[in-house]
Amino acid sequence: MSDDARLITQWNRLTRVHRRIEARMERHLHRHLGLGVSEFYALRTLSEGVAAGTGLLYLSDLANGTGLSQSATSRLVTRLQERGLITTHTASNDRRSIEIELTAVAYDVLRLGSPLLSQAVEEVVRQLRVEETDKDLLRYLCGGMSDGVSTHVRQEPNVR
Fold first, then answer.
1. Is 43 helix (H, G, I), strand (E, B) or coil?
2. What sequence ranges are listed for the domain HTH marR-type (predicted)?
3. How far apart are CA 71 and CA 137, in angstroms?
């Protein structure tokens, strides 16, 4: 197999695993919090902006942080507002810009949702181990997780 073909094969494997993990995340978030992955990622992006000391994020920043288009981000913001997770207002220094802030409810959702994401990743990685997925990919997934998760996943027996 050529290097190009190998790279494409590895990329396809990674993409399939990413889709499985994201689908599992979607199920967990929807079941427990009534949110989709995009909504949760948006809250995390906003939270990271607050943690970085900016306090507020502009709509364009949120679009860049989530990888969504401006129009998709606008629809997302409307959904988050309707659920009481964010507030928006016109920027004081630029009347054309919208500033976005998280509500207390959003912080609760983030606190409850983060373990759900970890659980989803752990479940998929365990399944991949059973399926005897590409060992390099598994090593990458386990090494990229927090110590608690990677330790937990590595200690799982390989069920046959």
1. helix
2. 4-147
3. 35
SS3 80: helix
For residue 35, with 0-12 CB atoms within 10 Å meaning exposed, 13-18 middle and 19 or more buried, which class applies? buried
pLDDT of residue 76: 94
Q: Looking up tokens 């997780």, which residue turns up? A: 145
* Type of residue at 132: E
How high is the pLDDT of residue 156?
43
Alpha helices in the chain (DSSP H): 3-33, 37-51, 59-66, 70-82, 104-130, 135-143, 147-155
What's the confidence (pLDDT) of residue 55? 56
The whole-chain average pLDDT of the chain stands at 82
pLDDT digits (tens, 9 = 90+) for 99-134: 888 999 999 999 999 999 999 989 998 888 888 777
52 and 14 in contact (C-beta within 8 Å)? no
Other CB atoms within 10 Å distance of the CB of residue 27: 13
The SS3 of residue 156 is coil
d(CA 8, CA 14) in angstroms, rounded, equals 10
Interval 37-51 mean pLDDT: 87
